[in-house]
Amino acid sequence: MFSVLRRYWLLLGMMVLTVALLFILLYFSVRATFIKGVREYAIFVSSFVASQLNAEDIRQINGPEDMVKEAYLRVQRYLVSVKKLDKDIKYIYIMRHSSSPNAKPTDFEYVVDLPVIDFNENGVIDEDEKKMELPKTHYDASRYPALMNSYEKASADEDVSPDPPYPDLLSAYCPIKDAKGQTVAIVGVDITAATINLFLASSKIAIASCGIIVLLLLFSVASLYCNHRISATRIRDMNEELSQKNRKLEENLWLRNEFSRTIVHDMRNPLFVVWGYTELLAQSGVVKEEEALDMLKLIGTQVERMKGFLEDMLMLAKSESGNLILNKIPVDIGSLIKAEKENFAPLLQLAEVSMELDIPKESRLVEIDRELFSRILDNLISNALKFSPKNSTITIALEYPKEGMHTRLRVCDQGSGISNDSKEKLFKQFGTGSVRPVSGKQVGLGLIFCKMAVDAHHGRIYAEDNKPKGCAMIVEIP
């Protein structure tokens, strides 16, 4: 679920950045288009004004003293009429190259400017309405390439530019030519930046509003998608959990059924022995006294085996429920092995299999649960016996630990061995070796018990090959 949330926030962040970038690009595109439109409009106005003015009137204006002449007043009245037609035109004027003897190409001078008049009709002559430039007033055009290039054709600033002490403006210029095509002056038209900025501010608000709406829609879609993925993930996890629990229940059910079947099957042999010897003992005069004692001893041994089977079932049930508690005491494992050999003597004789012990002469006590470890030995020997052919040998070796090592028990048979793949599955609930036991019974349940018991001792149990043939079961106890 957390990975879905991380992907959701990553996706949402990418969408926000993408939408923000798109709308920023949209704003700059709108701004560029609007500036282009303003430039074209200003060029149009300046071109129109230039076409309506008489070049001879311009030539007659050479200084402030000409401001009272009809030529000056006629041109100024026309500029005022154009200014009043459009409130977005801030200034409109006529300029030309400076006539000063030492003038540079960048030096211009005013010819006609707007008079001091209440253009906005607010009843007051504002500061910018007082700025009337007199003829011959110098103007430095070095910062304005469009103005310097306008002597040949109409031109305009690329963008809004500062022009202290005037406000920020976008200016367009058009040459005024005489009948011979010679440029006598330039008409300048200034569009105030306030008008442009007002439109751009409105565009920003509109674009930002659209962006917010789009982001909200995307957020809603992303939220729905995320909720869907989270729900799908939860459902998948729940289904997987239910499947695992179902498989666990099936395994437990199979294990109980199989274990019960195996216990019943394995208990038949000792029951048959007990029943057979009991029948013989019941027939008076058939069995001698010494033989009767041996039979009673065998009956006791087989009863002990049946008791062991029942204890296995009880131990497995305790282990599964978490109630298996060890009763550790110092135990001589060598003595346990010898006792198990005696218990298995009748079965070994019946199967025509011998048993050899490799136990150190010196005895050593190890902290273990005596009853549980006896069941481990019983199961390992029973398992080895199942796989042992006639005239073969089962070897049990005990190694006491050196410093930093564990007590090591090896139970080896001379059967057909177990494949490497099967060794890993041997101690799992459904694990059985890929060989056929000599007795025809499947192996696995007894080893499951051994695994649980060894784990309870914090030890280790595993299988390896027994050279030259067969299998060795190894138990290591700390």
List keywords for this structure.
2 domains, rod-shaped, Beta-Lactamase, seven-stranded antiparallel β-sheet, 14 strands, 18% strand, Heat Shock Protein 90, five-stranded mixed β-sheet, alpha+beta, 478 residues
CATH architecture of the largest domain: 2-Layer Sandwich
Instruction: Write down the Rg.
Output: 55 Å
What is the CATH third-level topology name of the largest domain? Beta-Lactamase
Compute the number of strand runs: 14
Percent range for helical residues? Answer: 40-55%
- In whole angstroms, how far apart are the ends? 42 Å
% residues in beta strands: 15-25%
Q: CATH-wise, what's the superfamily of the largest domain? A: PAS domain
- Secondary-structure element string: HHHEEEHEEEEHHEHEEHEEHHEE
Mean pLDDT: 81
Total count of domains: 2
Structural class: alpha+beta
Count of runs of 4 or more consecutive helical residues: 10
**Low-pLDDT sequence parts:** 430-443
Shape: rod-shaped
CATH C-level category of the largest domain: Alpha Beta
Largest sheet: 7 strands, antiparallel
Fold blueprint:
Blueprint: H1 2-52, H2 55-59, H3 70-85, E1 89-97, E2 107-112, E3 138-140, H4 145-149, E4 155-156, E5 161-163, E6 166-177, E7 183-192, H5 193-282, H6 289-321, E8 328-332, H7 333-351, E9 354-358, E10 365-369, H8 370-387, E11 393-399, E12 407-412, H9 420-425, H10 445-456, E13 460-465, E14 471-477
Parallel strand pairs: 9-11
Antiparallel strand pairs: 1-2, 1-7, 2-3, 4-6, 5-6, 6-7, 8-10, 11-12, 12-14, 13-14
